[in-house]
Design a protein that fits this description.
Length: about 325
């Protein structure tokens, strides 16, 4: 790392490295108006400062850009992530010489992405609250949720994808992808009716592939009345499904209202009060629930069996209507 002023060159040591992988050219990060694809954060124990450098593409050298004091509670925006129309700040915060957290300003209602760093032997020896691959609590936090141990990738409300830290913690690495446009989206899911028309300017619409769509657990549902819900699992395993069906939790067998060795897709208006709608995807056993989910995923294939229906039974790949039809507006 090439120094500046009183800060001399650094030829060896451990640092936090930010690297853009798969970016077009070398302009994924912006540091003091300079474009680059690699940034370093290095702790200097001699003067208790964190020094930052970027890869200078002019001379291909790691060049000093700024520093942050280790004294007290201080913070600094180190660089900006730039991808198409997305620009988000990456900030390092020092909390009384103990925590050295990196915050990626995800800028959505659920909060930012926080990556935890601690000093060890006066250097950034590892990523996380503690060293080791088996203890990962509080290493990676999205908003108020600790996602360090999550098995699947996490998609934030504004479109960032945070790779499963469970797959990368042994390498002391967090991988995230930035969307081309950092905005919030409203998505209309229609089963048994007709979607409203959408105006598209300068582009086109296509059906999304739901194979990689991640679910949330009951603990993640802050307010069951705040919006439409798709509930997966019967009243024996999902308390919200039981409540929507007017049953005690847990309820299994014939009392569950799910036909034996089959599954249901059931549309309930105002299940939790208000005008929101619940879609229940539930089977007699897990295999039947999976079959119903597959039918929903392949909606275009089963549209003639699903359109206008409030409830259908799923038996393998066969879909049969039960109950009255809905009226499409």
């Amino acid at each position: 790392m090439k120094g500046s002023g009183s800060f001399g060159d650094v030829t060896s040591g451990k640092a936090i490295v930010f690297e853009a992988v798969g970016a077009s050219g070398d302009d994924a990060f912006t540091v003091n108006s300079q474009k680059t694809d690699k940034v370093w954060a290095y702790y200097n124990s001699s003067d208790l400062q964190i020094y930052y450098a970027y890869l200078n593409t002019t001379n291909n050298a790691e060049t000093f850009t700024s520093n942050l004091s280790d004294t007290g509670a201080t913070a600094k925006t180190v660089f900006t992530v730039n991808f198409k129309d997305t620009a988000v700040n990456v900030q390092q915060t020092v909390n009384d010489s103990s925590n050295y957290n990196i915050t990626i300003a995800n800028e959505d209602a659920h909060g930012d992405l926080l990556i935890n760093f601690e000093l060890s032997n006066s250097a950034f020896e590892y990523l996380g609250e503690t060293d080791g691959d088996t203890t990962t609590a509080s290493d990676v936090i999205y908003g108020t949720r600790d996602i360090s141990g999550w098995d699947q990738d996490t998609r934030t409300q504004s479109g960032f994808i945070i790779g499963s830290y469970k797959d990368s913690d042994s390498a002391d690495e967090v991988i995230f992808s930035a969307p081309g446009d950092n905005v919030n989206y409203d998505i209309e899911v229609v089963v048994g009716g007709t979607a409203s028309a959408l105006a598209v300017t300068g582009g086109s619409l296509e059906q999304a592939d739901l194979s990689s769509l991640n679910s949330v657990t009951f603990d993640d549902v802050v307010d069951k009345t705040s919006g439409h819900l798709i509930l997966v699992g019967g009243p024996a395993v999902n308390s919200l499904t039981a409540e929507a069906l007017g049953l005690e939790f847990p309820t299994s067998g014939v009392a569950s209202t799910i036909p034996e060795n089959k599954a249901i897709l059931k549309w309930i208006d105002g299940a939790f009060g208000g005008s929101n709608t619940v879609l229940i995807v539930a089977g007699w056993e897990a295999a039947e629930t999976q079959a119903a989910a597959s039918v929903l995923q392949a909606y275009s294939t089963y549209s003639s069996e699903l359109d206008g229906k409030t409830s259908v039974e799923v038996d393998g790949t066969t879909v049969t209507a039960v109950g009255a039809d809905t009226t499409a507006e």
